[in-house]
Specification:
Blueprint (H helix, E strand, L loop, with lengths): L2 H4 L10 H9 L4 H13 L1 H12 L6 H55 L1
Length: 117
């Protein structure tokens, strides 16, 4: 993946996606469950994520949906990044063309000025 897109899924002090899924599905050990619960008391973002995961009835499909959402986000970001780069390329090309036109006109003017004097 391109370095511009890696920042989306940076690691934090929050439980991993898999840990939250395992917590919702009751697959964590008592110690791991306690760690997640302690984190949830301080982290509103994770609490809301867990609440959303808890409301989903078919919990076995969650990993596939999350993976699909990540790819959708990456596709949109790549498209936006390409569009921005394309615009920057057109601006650079326009500046180069204007510089060339200016140089040609300056040389033309200098040549005619030198001939007349």
């Amino acid at each position: 993946m391109n370095e511009h897109f890696n920042d989306i899924f940076v690691t934090t002090g929050c439980p991993t996606q898999q840990q939250l899924l395992d917590y919702v599905q009751g697959k964590l050990s008592a110690e791991e469950q306690h760690e997640v619960e302690m984190h949830l008391t301080d982290c509103e973002f994770c609490s809301e994520a867990l609440e959303g995961l808890s409301n989903i009835k078919d919990k076995e499909k969650i990993p596939g949906w999350i993976s699909e959402m990540k790819w959708d986000v990456l596709k949109k970001l790549r498209k936006k990044y390409r569009t921005r780069r394309k615009t920057e390329n057109y601006i650079s090309l326009a500046v180069i063309i204007l510089c060339i036109i200016f140089l040609v006109l300056a040389m033309f003017w200098a040549y005619h000025f030198a001939i007349k004097h």
